[in-house]
Here is the input.
Amino acid sequence: MPAAMPMRRTARRSPTPGMIMPRTIMATIITTSIIPVITITTTSIAITSIITAIPMLMTISKSPPSADPGAMTESEAAALYRLMTWLSPAFPVGAFSYSSGIEWAVEAGDITDAASLRDWLASMLADGPGFCDGVFLAQAHRAASTHDDAGLRDIAELAAAFVPSRERQLETSSQGRAFIEIARSAWNCDGLDDMIAHCNGAMVYPVAVGIVSSAHKIPLAPTLHAFFHALTSNWISAGARLVPLGQTDSQRVLAWLEPVVVATSKRALEASLDDLGSATFRADLAGMRHETQYTRLFRS
Here is the structure.
């Protein structure tokens, strides 16, 4: 057999200028050259986008939120805070120790359950001391707000005399003095001392609330609503302890009386001193007879 021919080694030479390179080699060179360019370009775009977006995000986060049409102003929030404080059961005017004759009505059998308590209080609110106190509060607030010193003195004296029994006088005058003393100690403001001085010592509870709220520039309408809510709540609290009633029944009575409170507040807001009057004779008698009641938990 003929001997195998030796394999010839061909040296790979570098292409010379003007020489056409194979397609595979060209593709490799082009791809290798372009990839870094694309990477750098993409990275540059991303960095540019981030740098541009950061100020935009900072601007958005600093911009104020859209105004809430239901938001309270600073003065409205302060007025609400003070009314909730002054007319809260925790405000120390001693309201928990008075029943406005409800104690005798329970003993006499006029109030025996939630329904009879509701009817009794509805009459006291709309046709008795509730409405009259609301009128005195409104008139005192207006006189104090307009600096009608003589008018304020006359209103304070009339309100102090407009009570049907000795215990009712003790109740409203004691609460009025306590309200003024605490307001002057913790919530004093310019003009309050002068308003109190014009009353010549006659200070019952609704007049005291009207003067203090006027001195603090709190509008009359919300003051009147808060006063009626506090008055009704105190009466229900007394009835709940005397009947007795559970917490749920007490809240039902308060809910039932809401339209009565709203209507009475509206009437008192529009009334004048000539509209004063009471037609709750049984409640007035209850206040008088409580003075000689044998066993008592309340001072009125």
